[in-house]
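Dear support,

Our group has been running a series of protein-ligand predictions, and this particular one with glycine is the one our PI (initials K.S.) wants archived with full inputs and outputs. We had some confusion internally about which version of the output was final, so please treat the block below as the authoritative record. The input we submitted was:
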Amino acid sequence: MVGSANALPGMEANWESVLAGGHPLDAAIETVKIVEADPNDASVGLGGLPNEDGVMQLDAACMDGETHNSGAVGAIENILHPCEVARLVMERTDHCQIFGEGAYRFARSHGHPHTELLTEKARRRWIRWKESMSDQDDRLPPPKEPEAEKHGSLPTRFERHGTIHCSVLSTRGQVACTTTTSGLAWKIPGRVGDSSIVGAGLYCDGEVGSAGSTGRGEAAILSCGSHSIIELLRQGKAPIDAGHEVLERIVRQTQRMAQWQPSLLKADGRPAFNVHFYILDLRGRWAGVGLSGHANFAVADRDGGPRHEKIVPLLG
Ligand code: GLY
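Confirmed final output from the archive:
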């Protein structure tokens, strides 16, 4: 199993089922459901940060390497487990994606309950953001302390991403994966990120391996990041090299984009944001890579069971 750092509790809960020969998609979905339901994780599902209207809109997708099928939901509201709804899209329809109101109605038709996902803590952070946005509107600036301390600091522009990804290789050599998120905090209503886009926030191929991403979704979409990694694995690259090659592309693509959006680059010419990829091949080789900085990712293998390992940054 390989995935984002916040997948560790789920890997600990599901590692035995993988060792016992369980289906990789069952293990991946059960792993991420723990974080979807965790009100203390501010980046996924319940407790996540809402869009600019204060409404929680979630993105999720899953893919099964054995059947080469996928399902996704995007901008879905009031559903606790969008990863399970993505699986229903895959298994119970002839579609790959259902977004917005239709995704909610589809989930309800399969018995998923209507759930309020905006916690009081997240609502307070959102209203503080809204009150801080402009001195040209009629909302007064939010009270400073102690309110600000009590409910956590507001994420900066490039800290507003958070997601969970999990890829699994079964004892029978099958791969599957899922990615799920509440997406970018304060996003424009209806924005759908990479987590719902097969090829961007996740991809697997039963002949090759599995990959997924967290971080700036627009960069994963514009690089077709997860699909590109799988194609490099297919050509014989090791997971870490495949990941770094796609990250190098993202750096070059961002430098071109910065011609019209300079804030995408820091003063030193490096991207101002981060993207992480989690990669697994059919030989059981894995990697966690990122653009820059120190971070962990989660892995579980026969050598050491579930644990955190260090992301290998491209740029140090
Ligand atoms: N990677 C999560 C998002 O950008 O929505």
